Amino acid sequence: MDTSWIAAFSPGFRKALRSALVDARGRRALACFDADQTLWAEDIGEALFRWLLAGDLLPRVAGRTDVWEDYEARCAQSLVEGYSYAVECMSGVAEADLTKWCRQMAAAWPNHRPAMIKLANGLAAAGFEVWIVSASNRWIVQASAHVYGIPPERVLGIDAEVRDAVLTDYVLKPVTCVAGKVEAIRDRIGRMPDVAFGDSLGDLPMLEASARPFVIGRRDRRTAKLLGIAAEREWPVHLF
């Protein structure tokens, strides 16, 4: 089995990955990845939201100029509330239109990380069942997942009820952020991850629920809170 893709990562990260591969031999192990700032740099869910607002494509908030500020204020209070609000704002949009727009944005997204593409594919080749569990809306993450060899049906993201092919403002539970990520994994996949990858406190419960947590960080954000937790708990870290 080719494991050359491991070489792109830090020594501690490589060691933990090799151990995970050994542990997974002979069984269908589970790998769960956060998306934004983990698989790729930046936040594609927020980028889509800003683009939709700029184009006045969201009938629920048409004409308003304070939506982004409202979103940021809600996120400051609660990530679950803020991210849910972004999906609520998409109510009234035809799902076919949203799917088309997401495919367009995903095709133009310049922030994919080659090392993470190889990591996701390497784990799949080693027999892992690979999923994305993201706090971005499911449509944009599903549109991006193919880059990492992950089928859309293995994407868990913030979702809304669709009626008559149009999004409603009813956000489905669990919301895939913080503890909701673990609840969604339990409900949809039925077991906890053997390995999990995340970059922020929104991923912490998923990392804690994993047999082997891996933390992704940025060299220009070394004071990120999750990096401090990873250092205390001796979790493997890789910085981009």
Task: Please give a structural write-up.
By secondary structure, the chain is α/β, with parallel strands linked by helices. The protein is 44% helix and 17% strand. The chain has helices at residues 11-24, 44-54, 67-77, 79-88, 95-108, 114-125, 138-145, 179-189, 204-209, 225-233; strands at 30-33, 129-137, 155-158, 160-163, 166-171, 195-198, 212-217, 237-239. A hairpin with a 2-residue loop joins strand 4 and strand 5. Helix 3 runs antiparallel to helix 4 and helix 5 packs across helix 7.
Topology:
Layout: H1 11-24, E1 30-33, H2 44-54, H3 67-77, H4 79-88, H5 95-108, H6 114-125, E2 129-137, H7 138-145, E3 155-158, E4 160-163, E5 166-171, H8 179-189, E6 195-198, H9 204-209, E7 212-217, H10 225-233, E8 237-239
Parallel strand pairs: 1-2, 1-6, 2-3, 6-7, 7-8
Antiparallel strand pairs: 4-5
Helix pairs in contact: 3-4, 5-7
Q: What descriptors fit this protein?
A:
240 residues; Rossmann fold; two-stranded antiparallel ribbon; 10 helices; 8 strands
